[in-house]
Amino acid sequence: WMQWRRSEGKVTIEVVDEGVGIADPVHLFVPSFSTKPQGNGIGLALSRQIVEGHKGTIELTNRLDGPGARASVRLPAGS
Q1: Rounded to 10 degrees, what is the CA torsion of 70, 46, 37, 62?
Q2: What CA–CA distance (Å, rounded) separates 49 from 67?
Q3: Rounded CA gap, 74 and 52, in Å?
Q4: Closest CA to 21 of 64, 60, 69, 58
Q5: Cα gap 19→71, rounded to integer Å
Q6: Which tens digit of pLDDT belongs to each residue from 18-72?
Q7: Environment class of 68 (CB within 10 Å of its CB; exposed 0-12, middle 13-18, buried 19+)
Q8: pLDDT in the model for residue 79
Q9: Rounded to whole angstroms, how far apart are CA atoms 2 and 15?
Q10: Would you say 34 and 42 are in contact if contact means Cβ atoms under 8 Å apart?
């Protein structure tokens, strides 16, 4: 599922899944690191660069309330 909210001058977008979760959270944003045989490891590193370029943050964590992961992107809210 996906949701968004606006508070304290920021917009937060969350995407939550019920998959297997994040097996190796240490290497999530490492450029050129991939767990896929044909992967090149630029997706999350590039996503972080774009979000931070807009003065935001991106976070990926395993869910505590069940299986799966949660991705949160926080960006400054426009006027």
Answers
A1: -10
A2: 28
A3: 10
A4: 69
A5: 13
A6: 999 998 888 888 888 787 788 887 889 999 999 999 999 999 999 999 999 999 9
A7: middle
A8: 62
A9: 4
A10: no
